[in-house]
Amino acid sequence: MVISDQNIRDQILNEDVKNIAVSASAGCGKTTILVEKLLRTCNAIKNHQTIAAITFTIKATEELRERTNNTNLHKDLTICTNDSFVENEIIRPFIMDALGDEFSQDFVVDFNKKFNFEEEGLKYLKADKILGSYYNNKKNFKFRLGLYILKNSVAAQQYLISKYRMLFLDEYQDSDQDMHNLFMYIKDMLNIPLFIVGDSKQAIYLWRGAKENIFEVFDESFTRYELYHNFRSHLNITNFANLIHKENYLENRASEIVNEVALYSTDKSFNNAVLKILHKKEINLNKKVTIIININSAAEECRDFLNRNGFQFEFIPRTPIDDGIINSFVLRCLMKLIVNKYYSVYDFLLDLNLEINTIEIRDLEKQVELLTQNNLEIQNIEIILKEIADIINVEFSENEIRKFSQTLENDSYYISFLNNDSKHKIMTVFATKGLEFDQIIIRASDYPLDGIGSLNNHYVALTRAKEKVVIVDNTNIYQKNIFDRLKKKNIQTLDQVLKSYDV
Amino acid sequence: MQFSWLEVKNFRNFKDIKVDLTNQNVIFGMNDIGKTNFLAALRFLFDRDIRKNGLTESDFYMRDTGKDISITICMNIKDFDDSDHSKLIVSRLKDARDSTDLENVYLKLFGRYDKEEELGGITLFWGNNLKKMKEIPQKNGFTELDRIFKVVYIDPLINLEHIFQKNKKAIFAQEKFSKTDIEKSDKIKSLTREINTQIGEMDIINSFEKEITKEYYSLKNEELEVTIKSEMAINGYFSDLKPYIKKSNDDNLYPTSGDGRKKIISYSLMNYVSRNFNSEKISLFLIEEPENSLHRSLQIALSKKLFSHESYRYFFLTTHSSELLYEMDNASLIRVHSADKVVCSSYLYNVGEDYINIKTQLNKFLVTAIFSERVLLIEGPSEMVLFEKVLNEIKPDYELEGAYILEVYGISFKKYWDVLNGLGIKVFVKTDNDLKRKKGSPDTFDLIGFNRALELCGEEKKKPIKIAFEKTDTDIDKNEKIKNSKIKIFDNYRKSKKIIKENNIFLSRIDLEHDLYEALGTRLEELTGSKDPIKYLQSSKLINMAELTKVLNHTDCQKIYDDSRFIVLKELINNGDKRSKYKGSDIE
Question: What is the ipTM of this complex?
């Protein structure tokens, strides 16, 4: 396989030990390049120093450990979450040095111990030996404490300088301001270079206080790279998507004959056009096909129509909690916990990167159990949600509670939260986030390409497909919009990037 | 990283010693005084192989197991910013270090005897504050300390086979094979398999195998066979590799059996290993009497290697050899000696900028002296020739009893004075009462003799004096006036003279030749065949003194020895005991 941005990847790997930021969307092999760079840098170290690979979630830490396990590395790497790093490399060893002997190394981390002011937090830490957190989600007590200790303990500074040649930070888009401040201090004042990898479009943990666009705020001390080769999709598909949407993507890398992107112009209705296309050889019906329609009613109609005509399409609806709210991810996971028997509370904890004790887990399970009852009043749902919010340290707005209730009450939404293996599906673009399908069919009318939202959705939709994208266009302007954009990249004809048909 | 000091308490023959250290440390002293024990203390601290066996009763001072053993070392890491070694130490210490003292790191071994177990248990501590040390974490018997230091112990009977065996695996590691190496290796493996097949088919082997197996059965009824194989085939062909010597233009292979040769190969091997492996750790060399079996020239070559700071950056060396120390600089000299109990005196020896160009020469003279108990410093060869003659007549075994005469040869007395005193060696000085004319001022004279003595005592020097010369004075007149000035100075500065004498410095009233004349009187005229023996001796000093000593008889020597002007010789012999019964001098 030819990797379209191989030269960028090579450049990254050949770079000296210095500050590097790599941004890439999902499926672009971010973790792979991080691992390769890590191993290469590590093997080049001749003295005792080592490298720390710091991720955001426990899941990612485990994955990273696996991927660095079988190699010929004769060094001990530090692979941990950033919470673990700041706790075990900074706070515990040097808290007494920075704050005095009355503070102990043996404190317990308990996110449910809340406070408003720093003095209170320090009091709990000193007297009760509990490291808690701010009520205000945007402030991160642990990392502020870590930064303070680092600034006030030369022994701590010398420890990090002596041990680490370089730090590797994964999923950086999920960091909050306080985490960012700590790592920038390490880079600027301790001169330990950082290799940072992230996806500006993928911040999931905004609900935990992650700062939006933290990935955008790097200064000139960083050499920045962007990876665009997508390992999921065929090159011709990502080529098309990137030409239209990525400013820095300038070259047309499509093959001579493009089979993977097909634009069908038609006067017919969408449903009729699709029916015809399905009967052609364009689509391989033995493989998975997903039709993406961004309005629930139209999607349902399409399903009914196609199934009347002999197909078996399953409709995965867009739910009220899919998008547009900060706690979308949490609430989706919660719904999964309620309706999906293969999704356990431990999956829930892992996905949300939570560490709570057994008593709290019991509590959580109890509350979830309550939510499975029928005909709950919204007031009751609100109460239960507030309980759950306390346990997992989240805050749900009125709007979010309402949307969750809507979702919970309507069991036609449940299918969105189940493991779904049917071959032929219809879903909205919002539900496709993070997923991939063999072949997709999209409606041009869903993408007027006239605003950030629409552009984003178009990009997301296109990049869900692995092998084939079929665009059904019964608008008068979609083709022109595409063409205008391509002209900016000096591409004069559409057939350089796709196949056109009439149907 | 720089070693700073070492303290040992209640360990073997050390009750309580503390010595200053640098990264190159030389331990010397009489046989059986405890040099090996000094190294043993370090091995217990740094070497897991020694530590894991614990302490026995005999490791405790005077076998008093009631008193705990402690071995403490201090390391200075103020070069943190520039030193990988200091960084390595900091990275392992982690929370055992706080910001109150960023320069020093202490390691401490603590040994306590358990009467029931009949074993001494060892605990290790470290930290940057002697009052707040933390126990060193350990896992699977390996402590964090062992991840910092790698002890390379080189014993005097360095065993080449053993070293080669130990390091074979690492040196010839599979991962380092080139592509052709891998092919060749496979080929060798199949050849060795072939060897075993052939061996297995030999009648004599077969019949032996059958017989042995039968014998086995007769003793124990077990379903097995005894079979004879080539070791190479079982343990891999590397098990069979040994080093040999091959000379150019000679196809024969020679076993490395000569001790000298073995030693050099062993050192080569050690160098190779410490250079290529363990680059992550600090290699600490503990070397015992490496001079054994080495010709003088090789000892000197080894000295260069040791003190060149390249291969052997951190070492503790015990030795009896002066040659080994010819190249020393920035070294800690540690003398182990005993009064009633064992004492260690240490001195941080620096050649210094002034002497760096004559380092070897400076060291050559010094290093023989440091192996003595009492040293007499003299100015030059004429003193040497005379004193050697006298002592060889009167006390021929003076060197055996630990006395030594050292010519200073134009290098300042102070250099030797400081080192020898620092090592607890008794130092005596005999020097002339010289006056030196100041440049550009013909009637002003520096009291260089007196001041030389005063400087050694740490006293203030005297101001120069003026001698009134007349225009009409001849050279003889002038010399007479100078001589009289010397006498005047000598007689007048009583207090200074007392201090000088208390410091074992013996100043001539005028000079050696005058002392000799006053001791022997007219006999000297007889011996030199000159009416003015002083003039005679002062011209062609060395030759004429040498001629003189040829004709001195035993009585003459006895007379000189007993004379108060040469009392320094008695002091040297009698250990500087001021309360001896001999005549007091008139130099009061």
Answer: 0.80
